[in-house]
Design a protein that fits this description.
Blueprint: H1 2-16, H2 25-53, H3 55-63, H4 73-93, H5 95-120
Helix pairs in contact: 1-2, 1-4, 2-3, 2-4, 4-5
């Protein structure tokens, strides 16, 4: 989700805010935003269903020190789709609705990011912190 949304999300926001606009630029950015919004809904639904149907597997992913940091991707996706909604979606849903949607997505993204940082990808889950360092550890 990060590659589809966060990586292209910042480009989409840059395209929408360029001082010099040319024909088709805003439309292209809006199409990318719409695709990202649909993917966000689909992948969020799939993640929720995964947690409901396969709770032990999902919990194992969250506790895995290698996989757990990927739980930071959805909060970034919520933030970038929210920014795109404010910049590009206001033409389709109106400014008050776009601002409300952005506020909700910003809140979900911020809380999700904080929870991920504290519960999921915290440094104490890192394989490097689970070992006992010795004087020879630095030399390999």
């Amino acid at each position: 989700m990060v590659r589809v949304d966060h990586g292209h999300g910042d480009r989409r926001c840059r395209l929408a805010s360029l001082p010099l606009q040319f024909l088709g630029l805003r439309l292209a950015a809006t199409v990318v935003w719409a695709i990202a919004a649909v993917l966000l809904v689909a992948l969020t639904t799939a993640t929720v269903l995964h947690w409901i149907r396969y709770r032990s597997t999902a919990a194992g992913h969250q506790l895995n020190p290698v996989i757990s940091h990927f739980y930071g991707a959805p909060p970034m996706a919520f933030l970038t789709v929210g920014a795109g909604t404010l910049l590009l979606g206001k033409d389709w849903v109106g400014l008050p609705a776009a601002a409300a949607i952005d506020w909700v997505l910003w809140t979900i993204g911020t809380i999700g990011g904080l929870l991920t940082a504290v519960l999921g990808a915290a440094p104490w889950r890192s394989p490097a912190t689970r070992t006992s360092p010795t004087p020879r550890s630095a030399a390999g």
